[in-house]
User: What shape does this take?
Amino acid sequence: MSGDLGAEVVVRAAAAALRRHRNLELILVGDEAELTQLVRKVLGKHPRLSIRHASEVVGMSEPPAEVLRKKKDSSMRVAINLVKDGDAQACVSAGNTGALMATAKFVLKMLPGIDRPAIIAELPSRGGSLHMLDLGANTQATADHLFQYAVMGSIVSNDILCIDAPRVALLNIGAEDTKGNDTVKEAAAMLSASTLNYVGFIEGSDLFDGKADVVVTDGFTGNVALKTMEGTVGLCIHHFKRQFSRSWFAKLQALLAHWVLRSLRVEMDSRNYNGATLVGLNGIVIKSHGSADAYAYQHAIETAIVEVRNQLPQQIGTLLEKEAA
Assistant: This one.
């Protein structure tokens, strides 16, 4: 209900996902009257689509603590309760990130061996893509937290990208073993002694060079890096448009390069990477970008489907037990 573009985006994404997956069942949670009208408009009645009423909506700027105390019948809370009660196997939301994280942690609890949840997302890189975490759930992290992030990131990368032994790297100010603070050095020692495919430190300039499949950092650094990437893409698009509109000759060059530019736009389309996982929870919760359109939101649903099929929380728990043994 509370994504930037409204509930119709979610209904259209749901319709597309139902067409693609014949065994998928979806529950839309929110204002029943509004959702019923939208479903009638977009796809009509569907045997694998149902609506669960929720009387409240979480605003995008509401403090998480206030949401937990005062909005117990919000669409977000009801949806996460469905996962807790076993009526749904995953929750996908485009709502307030802080409120979603706080509510999911309160309702679903953490997996044994995990101290804090983390936000992980898929990002484009040379020759494919990578997964990075934490992207903002926790501004600070200990070495133990970074190790837990690495375990969870390795499982997600294995599930989503089908990589048997994902290469795990720690984001640092240099690739040399002597660089970085005590926290990353301690985490590096723990990862080196683990069964994970740890490949060492990685610098920000090498993130997209295909040197790692999973990049681990604290939430403060990860979120700054993510926003910097998004801003850089926007800056590049701005300069492309400006240069190709400078003269009639530049416009002709743009016309000749149309297919190359179109292919690049498709390959770099951030909608193909929408859907960040809140890992570490005793349940599957996917955070869609608040400004996601129906195409992007459908990708978030696809991420949830993959994680349900692969039983992500159980996999994380099993690997943690193995590492602790």
